[in-house]
Amino acid sequence: MNSSQPSADLFDVVIAGCGPTGAMLAAELRLHDVRVLVVEKDTEPVSFARIVGLHIRSIELMAMRGLLDRILPHGRQRPAAGLFAAIPKPAPEGLDTAHAYLLGIPQPVIVHLLEDHATRLGAQIRRGRALAGFEQDDEGVTVTLSGGEQLRARYLVGCDGARSTVRKLLGVAFPGEPARNETLMGEMKVGVPQEEIAARVVKTHQPFWLKPSGEGMYSVVVPAAGVTDRSEPPTLDDFRTGLRAIAGTDFGVHSPRWLSRFGDATRLADRYRVGRVLLAGDAAHIHPPIGGQGLNLGVQDAVNLGWKLAAQIRGWAPETLLDTYHSERHPVAEAVLDNTRAQTELLSPDPGPQAVRRLLTELMDIAEVNRHLIEKITALDIRYDFGEGPDLLGRRIPDIPLKTGRLYDHLHQARPLVLDTTTHLTVDGWSDRVDLIPDPTAPLTTPALLLRPDGHIAWIGDHQQSLNTHLTRWFGNPTH
Predict the structure, then answer these.
(1) pLDDT digit string (tens) for 372-394?
(2) Residues 145 and 293 grouped into a single domain
(3) Does residue 323 lie in a domain region?
(4) What is the reported pTM?
């Protein structure tokens, strides 16, 4: 299909689901002028104000796209500490980032900000329209919405959550472990003084959470009595029962603002792509929310996929580029699932896991151990496999000062760039899609590097021919 021919029902990409992953992906595609429609079954965004945490890597991505200044006033910064299995250790010193903090932000706020970002860039969003079915062929995908309306798109991306309709209709296996335990999470008022809560928490060795969250409300996390249907919201009595069982009192909880439940099911899709249909976010992977990695993993999926899918649609993508979405992101999700499994065990009250927890607590006094675990949780440790080369190859680059400002300021449009301290290199033939920054003052340990739009280093060196080879590998043939 010719993407330059306008049509009311013809899109380059249809995205199912307008959570953080879907909204971020829509914005990434619009930065490359891809025609995007997002369909969302819910008529209104989620309203309950659950606090989610943006980790360091996600904060960096927001800075890369010029979003961070809009997001920061709505969040609360705190040190990147105590993230692994809630083991209380200080944040490591000297993390290689300009954003060494966790940003707590209400989920409806981050969803609204990302959705607003996508629509400002020109994405269409239709709420109250669920994806009911689709059929793909060699030229595109025919999408059927609830109510029978049909759309035509070149690609379909399922960002429609753990119960993804897209994944199920695609027939992609979702192996893993079902939920064994369930946890209640909510925000409510309490009927006892803070001193009594603190004293009871200290005496109770089993895991639960009851902390002030502002405006007289308390955040409450407590194990549930059993595993139930997660589509059914819990009641206040469920919280009271759970609190009495674990702490001997229900603390007089009342007036809930919101109540939810989550399980420890852990699953990973076999494939992230089947033809012209792809999966991202919770549609591709689910895990317990320990460490707060879920939203971050999905947003990072979107940034990895967006420029690759846009390149495919624009016609300059190398043949295997879109397949690198699965080959890069599937192992990352696999590692996240493993670390959440480990954290889940460490939170068990049983003697064996508690012995391991005590041992790990001691080991985390070693700075390198603490740093390793925090970098794992915050996605600073990711290194994509780009083949043999220096350790920096495949890693993300932190924001660094340049003579023209900060590096991330040059990534707002999601264009790759060559950062050259030799000032001798060119991007002739690729200048329609790759930027060049000659800067002898740049604080690099290498003469020059090639950055992908997601901020990962795709080449290191100082020879023009070597650079040209890697420009072709990642960004297609030159225009001349």
Answers:
(1) 999 999 999 999 999 999 999 99
(2) yes
(3) yes
(4) 0.92
